[in-house]
Amino acid sequence: MSQDKTSDLLNKRNATGSFVAFLDDVKFLESKLCVYAETETEFIIIGTDDFIHTVELSVPNALEGDGPHTVTFPTMGRYWKVMINHFDQPIIEGELIVTFANFRKNVAGTFALDLGKARKVTGKFDLTLDTPKQSDRRVQPL
What we know:
Strand content: over 45%
Largest sheet: 6 strands, antiparallel
Strand order of the largest sheet: 2-1-11-10-9-6
Order of helices and strands: HEEEEEEEEEEE
CATH class: Mainly Beta
């Protein structure tokens, strides 16, 4: 996903909760901004602290049931990204275990990503899709 697309999703941030990531067991990301969004084919899960550090994950929305589901990378059609100190880090392989709840309004999971050269990114998230407040809803004219 391009940084413009990621920025667009983050500007419309729609999730609350926690997203934390570690590089070789040292915390490098405690997200200030979270995204949990559904596209035609997947759920996008993003944690970032103003684009200094970012983790972007995706899971197919065709998964049946709440889970837990295990999704591996690389998989055709999946886009995952790790950025540390403004630099993209190549992901060699990875695994995401994700569980949905409340009609997929909640998502929680853990991930483990191999960056090569014995470097590992691990983390966890627990996000809730924000629902618009009554005052935010627009009334359609009759």
